[in-house]
Structures are given as structure tokens and as C-alpha cells.
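Input set for joint prediction.
Command: fold jointly, output C-alpha cells.
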Amino acid sequence: MAKLQPVRGTRDLIGEDARAHLHVIDAARATAGTYGYRPIETPVFEFTEVFQRTLGETSDIVTKEMYTFQDKGGDSLTLRPEGTAGIARAVLSGGLQNELPLKWCYAGPMFRHERPQKGRLRQFHQIGVELIGVAEPIGDVEVIALAAATLDALGVLPATTLELNTLGDNESRGAYREALVSYLEQFRDRLSEDSKQRLARNPLRILDSKNNDDRAVIADAPSFSDYLTPDAQTFFDAVRGGLDDLGIAYQINPRLVRGLDYYCHTAFEFTTDQLGAQGTVLAGGRYDGLIEMMGGQPTPGVGWAAGIERLAMLIGPTSTGPRPISVIGIGPAGEKAALKVAQDLRQTGFTIELNYRGGLKRGLRRADKIGAAVAVFLGEDELARDGATVRNLDDGSQTDVSLAELKDHLAEYR
RNA sequence: GUGGCUGUAGCUCAGUUGGUUAGAGCGCCUGGUUGUGGUCCAGGAGGCCGGGGGUUCAAAUCCCCUCAGCCACCCCA
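C-alpha cells >
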């Protein structure tokens, strides 16, 4: 047991776990499709610079959580810690800036070397959407509406709260940052160790601290809304107005900040209190500077990503599809016939379980275990009359059916 | 990366102050005669007591290290 454990922070998806996982992806893709977002797949690893330059040299993800390695050619590669940077890279690689707006949805594994706990894995999976090339606030509104629709399709929307904030434009943020730092410097010795670090690296982060001493200091800190430029304020008002028009409820959270450097203007999160400390289920925002940061023409973008594992924990049991039909061959001739009958039924769209070994008793026992609705027997008796015996496993009733009418007889179980 | 809790059969868990062949329930397999499941009865398989080291005549039990999970911090999806 200790010998072959999965790598720390990774896990196998089996049975209901696998089903729930795929269900989340299917629902997300279907919902995104109705908004006109098309699937995109990018590689799970990229050149390290793709993440280093864009996520911010000081972010925790870049400084201590990336799986970075050298490949045999000597290039530094990194397993993607998030999806947006790779997609932005794909825009540039593919010369797609002439085809704006781009509307994409994706799903796949992400990798971060963190201490695992509930809702936090080292290989985890995200679904996400990106809207690239739309600078107008209506883009933010659409993307948030799509987020809500996705959560709704999964039945988890009522369990979440939408928190909304603006990070403003560069001008607003620069001015506020300065004001915040000079305020916090006065109380430096009252801040937690973590926050002292953050003061230099990422002061906005302190606003989000859970430390009580920090909170006391933050309570009287300057408010970001006082530093928003008129443009940034107008933008934010438009986003709020759009959400109001669509009847999407949200709470303004002035302390909502982002871990990644490429965000500006709108920041939002759908959170839940049902997942312990890892309460963020879906998070996103606007990243107008990203593509330029990678060396392209300035190109606006908005998007979000959601944790599939976290969503899977919130949804109820998923449907298992139609109950199977068990086809049981008895004796060498029966087994031969069963293989053919099973094949034929499968091609007609029935869900068929074939018994591989053992006789009728064993076949029935297995049929019961897998929850089959009916069993079809094919033995010498049946072959002699060119038919099959169909047993209803719920009430035990049996009927003789000719092979020709078998499909019709089973029709209700398809 | 920091702190706390946990780790005995496939699963959920017992295991007395360290003392012989480590137990239960569920699950699994076989049988209860020839072609009838679920129930019932009988039997069976399955444990490096997470791993390594130490203390002891003797360790699942005590000590140290280590690995993993969970919870919180941190971080974030």
C-alpha cells in the first residue's frame, strides 16, 4: 500500500469521481457553446518565460509553485499552472489577432506545487473561458453571465455568491498602491510577518489578509474607490449596470484582489462556504495588458477559470445512463451466439454487458451486481428454436422471444 | 513553506497497563448437484498493523525519522 502511492497531490478518478468530473466538463462546454465559445486545447507545458513574464515575477505561483524542468534540448519548460497565459501565447503563435474577437472555452489539468488539502491538489483541473479582443464592459458582463449560467447548469449557483471588484486601470492602481503603501508603512510593526513581506512585493494582497492584526490596520486604510480614474469608474459602473440588467446578483468586495499581475479592471469570484478554506469555485477578470506583455499588439481580454474538483464536490450524484442489458451465453454454442447478439444489439444503440465466463448462475449474479434491467439467455434450448429467453431482473418474469423480435421486445430498455 | 490531527484486510473500524497463531461488519471468492441473480446457510481467500530505525526477553501498542491523507495558515481554482 505504501509502495505504489500516487504522487502527492495527485489522484485517480474512478467510478463516481470520473463521472462527476466529465459531467462538469460536459455541462461547461455545452453552456459555453450557447454563448458561442468554441473549444480550444493548448499544450500542458510551455516555455517557462510564457508564465514567468505574464503572471508576475513576484507572484507566489511563479516564485514557488511552478513545476519547472529542463528538457533534453536544454530548454526550460514549465507545466502550466493556469490556462490563460498559454492561450494568449496561442493567439500570438497563430497570428490570430486579425480574427478578433476570439471566444474560447477549455478544460484540462493544471499543476502547482502547493501543500495539498481539501479542494487543493498539485495536479488539478480547470474549465475556463476567454474572450479576447473586446475592450467594452459588455464583454465582462457576458463572461460573468456565462459563468453564472455554467454554475446554474451544474445546479450549484444557489450555493455560491458572486463577489465583484475593480482593480482599475494602471493609473488608478499605481496611485492607490502608493497611497496604500505609505499608509501601511506607518503601522508596519503591527502587521503580520506575511504582510511585512507583502508590503514590498504585493501590497494589495494585504487587503485580503485573514490575520486579525492586519485586519485592524486595514480597516482604516485608504479606499481604492477614491483613487479610481473617471474612466475606470465609468467602466466599472457599466459592468455593474449590465449585471443588474441581467438580474445577476453580486456583492461588491473592495478587498477582492488578484494573485496574478496581468489583471485589471473587473475582478470577480464565485465563492461558497461549503468547501472549507478553499472557497473559491470560479474566478476571473479582465487582462487587457497580457498579450502586450508577451510582445504582441495591445489586445484586451476577459475570462475566468473554475476548479473542476471543487465543482465536482458541490454537485450531487450524477446520472449513470441507461441500465445495461446482460447477454448471457450458456455453453460453447450459446457463448458464440451471445457474442453476435450482443454486437448486434450494441450497434442498434443498446447498452450491453456480455458475460465472459461461467454459466447462467454466474452470469445472473453479475447481471444483478451491475444493476442490469434485463438478462437475455442464449443456451441450447433457445438456439434450437432460434430465439432467446428474456428475464426481467426486477420482477423475475421471463418470456421466450425469437431472435428476430428481440430488438423490439427490448426497445423500452434502450 | 508553517502548525495541528490521523495512518490496522478492498471499505468502515475494534485491538484492554507492550505479552502466544491481529479481530468484526461490509465487500470478494467457492459450495448448497444437472440452465436461474438479489435473500438465507456453510466454507474460503485476503494484513511488511503506511515505511525505516531504535528501546525491550517481547512492539500494532513506547521513542525518533520519514511518507501520505485530513484541517488550518499561506495561496488560490
